[in-house]
Design a protein that fits this description.
single chain; Isopropylmalate Dehydrogenase; 2 domains; eleven-stranded mixed β-sheet; 11 helices; 11 strands; about 15% strand
């Protein structure tokens, strides 16, 4: 049975949504949840019928969002440190945390280690597209400064993540640049282009709009650009939703139309809601670590757990290692 360690204390709203999300996940899938955090608080949120189905590991320290990620290694009694140690020691197969993302990524990289031949792990996030298939953006924030070889490896890792996790038979990989022409980009992206050219699925340079128009499945960039794209996209989605609500509120005719289009609005919300995805995997580490949004609700935690279970089951790490080994020969 798959064992998932869950940082019960890391989210913005305390353990309640995390425990509830774990319970919802347990109702739908068979797995062994291990909640890590303050035992008394966790137990108070568990119904009697579930107390024997969930393991609890005591951790009294919590790394807050305002704390420095560099301090995470010293705080061995923190919930995220202990959750990652469970994976390192073989007591869990994956970890889910809605806590300090920098601490989670640092600890996962340093304590679990990187896959063979992987220079840097990358944070992958799923973006909505015009079709039902989402695109993968990586790196979404783990590495601010990257060399061409790092971006090259992100392309390889993204390809196998799309193939194994999203079940895309022939993933298309694009390199994010300021134009589609081969000559576009800065010095790093130009060098990366030459390295990726001829590799499985590489279609060349892509522009920002291609993230959403379904012309490619994997978009490669450094973590500085990726995080800006992610936050800007969230801002645009939020602003559009705001305008729609305001126009509906001010117009009686729009209110009537909104009632008729309720299903359409529901589907739109589903496409842009981070809770539908659950979290972003840190690809390139030994094991599995899913980084969730600090504001995660129970639904988001449930889907993050499901994502961790799928990640462990697919064998994506082995496929990445094997491909990088081949490219080294």
């Amino acid at each position: 049975m798959i064992r998932i360690a869950i940082d019960a204390m890391g989210g913005d709203f305390g353990p309640e949504p995390i425990v509830k999300g774990t319970l919802e996940a347990l109702k739908e899938k068979s797995f062994q949840p291990i909640l890590v955090g303050k035992k008394d608080e966790i137990l108070s949120l568990l119904p009697k019928g579930y107390k024997d189905k969930i393991l609890i590991v005591e951790a009294n320290d919590v790394i807050d969002m305002g704390d420095a990620a560099t301090d995470a290694l010293k705080r061995k009694e923190s919930s995220i440190y202990k959750a990652i140690e469970l994976v390192r020691e073989g007591h869990a197969d994956g970890v889910v945390s809605a806590g300090h993302s920098g601490a989670t990524m640092s600890l996962a990289t340093l304590r679990l280690g990187r896959l063979k031949h992987v220079l840097r792990p990358a944070l992958a996030t799923l973006m909505p597209t015009k079709t039902s298939q989402r695109s993968i953006l990586l790196d979404a924030g783990a590495n601010v400064d990257c060399k061409a070889e790092h971006l090259f490896q992100f392309g390889i890792m993204g390809y196998y993540y799309a193939k194994d996790m999203l079940k895309i038979e022939h993933p298309r990989v694009g390199l994010l640049a300021n134009g589609e022409e081969d000559s576009k980009g800065n010095d790093v992206t130009k060098e990366t282009f030459l390295m990726l050219k001829g590799t499985n699925g590489f279609i060349g340079n892509v522009e920002g709009n291609n993230i959403f128009d379904a012309t490619c499945d994997v978009i490669v960039c450094d973590g500085f650009i990726g995080n800006l794209v992610l936050k800007a996209s969230e801002g645009v989605a939020s602003t559009i939703s705001y305008f729609i609500k305001e126009y509906i509120r001010k117009s009686p005719i729009a209110i009537t139309g909104a009632l008729l289009m309720r299903k359409v609005f529901h589907l739109l919300k589903k496409e842009i809601d981070y809770a539908e995805i659950g979290g972003a995997p840190l690809i390139g580490i030994k094991g599995c670590a899913i980084v969730s949004h600090g504001k995660s609700n129970p639904k988001a935690i449930k889907n993050a757990i499901f994502q961790a279970i799928r990640y462990v089951n697919t064998g994506v790490n082995e496929h990445i290692e094997n491909r990088l080994e081949e490219l080294k020969k």
